[in-house]
Amino acid sequence: MSVRELVVLGTASQVPTRHRNHNGYLLRWDGEGLLFDPGEGTQRQMLRAGVAAHDIHRICVTHFHGDHSLGVAGVIQRINLDQVPHPVAAHYPASGQRFFERLRYATAYRERARIDEEPVAADGVVAATPAYTLEARRLSHPVESFGYRLTEPDGRRMLPERLAALGIKGPDVGRIQREGELRGVRLDDVSEPRRGQRFAFVMDTRLCEGVHALAEGCDMLVIESTFLDEDESLAVEHGHLTAGQAAAAAR
Prior knowledge:
The protein is α/β, with parallel strands linked by helices. The chain has helices at about 40-50, 65-70, 70-80, 95-105, 160-165, 170-180, 210-215, 230-240, 245-250; strands at about 5-10, 25-30, 30-35, 60, 90, 115, 125-130, 135-140, 145-150, 155-160, 180, 185, 190-195, 200, 220-225. The strands form four sheets. The chain has a six-stranded mixed sheet with strand order 1-2-3-4-5-6, with helices on one face. A hairpin with a 2-residue loop joins β11 (about 180) and β12 (about 185). α3 crosses α4. The longest helix has 10 residues, at about 70-80. The mean pLDDT is about 95.
């Protein structure tokens, strides 16, 4: 059974509060976990939320401001401490390579896990698996920033009434899904198209083309909003969205 959920580890901005940690979001997508923007304190928040280092398959950093990346050091060291057996890919703006290296090697520890550095330098696909395609789009912030979009391949939805009418049941349902035809019955005869699900992650940015491209047609959108609409000039100055702009993008 597939499991898809967003675990929110923190939503605070530059300064955490007593009740809100720095940013941190884990997307569970079937058998994989994608950790977005681990800010300071993410490792402890993972413990509180029941998220293990073994749950992480990708780390996706939008930009190198501290509230979106200071947790990278602790998370990577925890991945090594727990000797996570699978490779963990790290995606982040290529222009921040020196920051990633400083975080990855912030202190001495034994490297017992595989971390694959996959920096992002331009818009496009950064990873493709049978379960999803992960894309990055450039955003507009005082430092280079990228948003991420995960897209599931389109599939087919089986129609029970058509299956029953044509006498297809039990193991034969799986067989026709795999093979596309069974005893003269085509998969198209007993199913209909199902659009793949879409998830997008949009953090610190002014309103720009990348915001709209990432948000379009999403089933779930995580998007920042730092200023009220009446403070739009400040939002532009500091490279953020207003609440109204974020809401409009979500529509």
